[in-house]
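Dear support,

I submitted the protein below through the web form. The confirmation email said the job was done, but the results page showed an empty box. After a refresh the structure appeared. I'm attaching both so you can tell me whether what I see now is the final result or a partial one.
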Amino acid sequence: MISTQTAEHYIWGGNCDGWVLASGSDLLIIEERMPANTKEVRHYHQKARQFFYVLSGDLTMELNGTTHVVPARAGIEIPAESPHQARNDSASDVIFLVISAPTSRGDRADAPALLAIP
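What the results page shows now:
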């Protein structure tokens, strides 16, 4: 059994939380919490395919230049080599699972930021 109470915990992006629920070379499952108005660096994975499943709140996901709002109890797949950026544009926490196969550790590369269109 594992939970956020017993899992390896880490801080990312200054004030976001991650808990490693399962880890191996073929699979990585993390529960993450993003406070209001936070975002990750836009990036991609060369090999890992990811699935983000929202447990509570609304996750904003930019994927290949298209913005998706993913509500609680819904998910979005991120294919390998696809630039993406998770954001929490809301006023409350968003909590979600990130499932990566194979592991995304050591497989991340920064992607150029999107230019704002006036």
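Response: this is the final, complete result; the empty box was a page-load delay. Residues 11-103 form a domain with the Jelly Rolls fold (CATH 2.60.120.10).
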